[in-house]
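Hi R.,

As promised on Friday, here is the backbone we talked about, encoded as structure tokens. Could you run it through your design pipeline when you get a chance and send me back a sequence?
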């Protein structure tokens, strides 16, 4: 089987669900701390699936991680667990240091011990896959070439700095201890199960709720959007065929200014769920104070993963964003659980006894 960390969050849950779509898939042990961003409703369809074992816990818990590795003997670990929201990192960076840096360090150390004791094929085939972000490369100007794997790390937010630190640790565990690692640096994701503190789900849900659609600064910041299903297929590809010690950039070739993204969502909603007054949802767009240290532009040059592994995204922004808006319209129960906070009830139920 494989071990996934952070598999109750947005991308981790999409990865677990897509992995287990295949009838011959190996099982998954899924270690997640269930922070505010972890939501077991994302994994509801797996409740009766014996191939999925959920473990509530922290990647920073050495005893627990060591015990899970011994018990489940995974042939690979895919590390999604992280604090992931830039705005939260500005207001409270401590959790980012703890999970993204110390937690990854702990996971690497436990893995080194476990992998060190494997023999033969088990040892040769083992992989530690670290899931990271393009934000480690800093900010581009309008004329800069998109981020290549060789770009220097220039993180600007506490979030990206903590992810950069974790990438450096992973790299060092390869060079120093020979651990079989691969790292992927992906651009902004969107799609089903995205927690509505991030731009795209926030705009969809605020629009439907008649609330303002907050656009930071002038709305001309650029992100390179990738549909989450494409990120998951890229991870599967790198896990299977990526070269050890390498990093692979993953992106959708979809650079868009934030204001354009918000306008596109409004247009789709105007068509699928028109406002009662027949006016456009764009009426709700509200320019608000900019984020401190806001990176102007991210863009990924994804040629390496395409040339080496033949991976390309299946979705364009137009197809992916439409699917995403439709998913939020089709899943009111999930939305309600997140908006009311009732998705957190599982923790109360679990620990009341
Ligand atoms: P998320 O915030 O939705 O989910 C993170 C998950 O990790 C949650 O389920 C949370 O409970 C869990 N978690 C947090 N701290 C933990 C700990 N100490 N131990 C165990 N579990 C813990 O994040 P996401 O958007 O799904 O991102 C997943 C990974 O992908 C992160 O490493 C992030 O840096 C990276 N990434 C995200 C994006 C994006 O656009 N969202 C883009 C590129 C890379
Ligand atoms: P976000 O989804 O937080 O991802 P990241 O900061 O990791 O790129 O934000 C995407 C872009 O949208 C970013 O440039 C900040 C901007 N943004 C807004 O304009 N308004 C908002 O309410 C949010 C949450 C983000």
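Update: got your reply. Pasting your designed sequence below so it's all in one thread:
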């Amino acid at each position: 089987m494989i071990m996934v960390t952070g598999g109750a969050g947005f991308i981790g849950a999409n990865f677990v669900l897509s992995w287990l779509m295949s009838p011959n898939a190996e099982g998954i042990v899924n270690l997640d701390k269930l922070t505010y961003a972890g939501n077991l409703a994302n994994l509801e369809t797996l409740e009766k699936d014996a191939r999925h074992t959920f473990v509530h816990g922290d990647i920073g818990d050495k005893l627990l991680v060591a015990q899970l590795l011994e018990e489940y003997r995974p042939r690979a670990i895919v590390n999604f667990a992280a604090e992931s929201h830039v705005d939260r990192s500005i207001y409270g960076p401590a959790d980012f240091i703890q999970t993204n840096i110390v937690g990854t360090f702990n996971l690497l150390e436990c893995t080194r011990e476990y992998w060190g004791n494997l023999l033969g094929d088990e040892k040769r085939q083992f992989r530690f896959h670290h899931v990271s972000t393009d934000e480690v490369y800093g900010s581009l100007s309008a004329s800069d070439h998109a981020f290549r794997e060789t770009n220097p790390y220039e993180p600007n937010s506490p979030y990206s700095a903590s992810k950069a630190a974790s990438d450096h640790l992973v790299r060092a565990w390869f060079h120093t201890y020979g651990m079989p690692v691969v790292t992927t640096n992906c651009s902004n994701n969107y799609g089903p199960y995205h927690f509505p503190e991030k731009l795209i789900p926030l705009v969809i849900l605020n629009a439907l709720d008649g609330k303002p659609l907050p656009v930071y600064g002038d709305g001309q910041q650029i992100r390179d959007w990738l549909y989450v299903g494409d990120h998951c297929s890229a991870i599967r590809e790198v896990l299977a065929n990526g070269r050890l010690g390498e990093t692979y950039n993953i992106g959708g070739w979809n650079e868009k200014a934030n204001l354009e993204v918000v306008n596109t969502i409004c247009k789709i909603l105007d068509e699928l769920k028109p406002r009662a007054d027949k006016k456009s949802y764009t009426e709700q767009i509200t320019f608000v104070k900019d984020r401190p240290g806001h990176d102007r532009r991210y863009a990924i040059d994804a040629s390496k993963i395409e040339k080496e592994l033949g991976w390309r995204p299946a979705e364009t922004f137009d197809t992916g964003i439409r699917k995403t808006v439709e998913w939020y319209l089709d899943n009111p129960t999930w939305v309600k659980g997140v908006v009311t906070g009732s998705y957190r009830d599982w923790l109360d139920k679990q620990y009341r006894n």
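One thing I noticed while checking it: Residues 5-6, 8-12, 31-35, 37-38, 58-60, 80-84, 99, 103, 131-133, 163, 186, 188-189, 195 surround nicotinamide-adenine-dinucleotide (ligand 1) (CB under 6 Å).

Thanks again,
M.
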